[in-house]
Amino acid sequence: MNTHTLKVFNTGQITLPANWRKKFNTKHYLAKETPEGLLIQPILRNEVVYYENKEGFGIYAENGLPVDDIIAKIQKIHGSN
Predict the structure, then answer these.
(1) Tens of pLDDT along 55-66?
(2) Numbers of helices and strands, H then E, in the chain
(3) How many CA atoms lie within 13 A of 72 on its CB side?
(4) Within 10 Å of residue 11's Cβ, how many Cβ atoms?
(5) Measured over all CA atoms, what is the biggest interatomic distance in the chain, rounded to whole angstroms?
(6) DSSP secondary structure code for residue 9 in this structure
(7) What is the reported pLDDT for 2?
(8) For residues 43 and 51, is the Cβ–Cβ distance under 8 A?
(9) Structural contact between residues 75 and 81, judged by C-beta atoms closer than 8 angstroms
(10) Which of 6, 14, 75, 76 could form a cystine bridge with 80, CB 3.0-4.6 A?
């Protein structure tokens, strides 16, 4: 594992090291606050990420999802079968 120091620019942006960008080959990352600090994870192709916002929740899937899969995921979130 590599460790890098990242700089936050005035716009709030950070730049990931080129070797990480090449390794994960994605332009989408999930940033999550954890008890240990900030976790930045790559969102890889065909990976589904659920997120919450003021309006409710959303589903991100870079390549899309079939409708049946979306319904199943929503039911799983709400504890339905």
Answers:
(1) 666 666 656 667
(2) 2, 4
(3) 6
(4) 6
(5) 47
(6) P
(7) 80
(8) no
(9) yes
(10) 75
CA dist 5 and 20 (Å) reads: 13
**77 token code pair:** 């979130």
What's the pLDDT tens digit per position in 7-53? Answer: 999 999 999 999 988 888 888 788 888 999 998 888 776 666 666 66
* In contact, 40 and 24? CB cutoff 8 Å: no
The residue type at 62: E
pTM over 0.85: no
Q: Which residue has the tokens 């960008």?
A: 21
Instruction: Walk me through the domains of the chain, giving residue ranges and CATH numbers.
Output: 1-44 (2.10.260), 45-81 (no CATH)
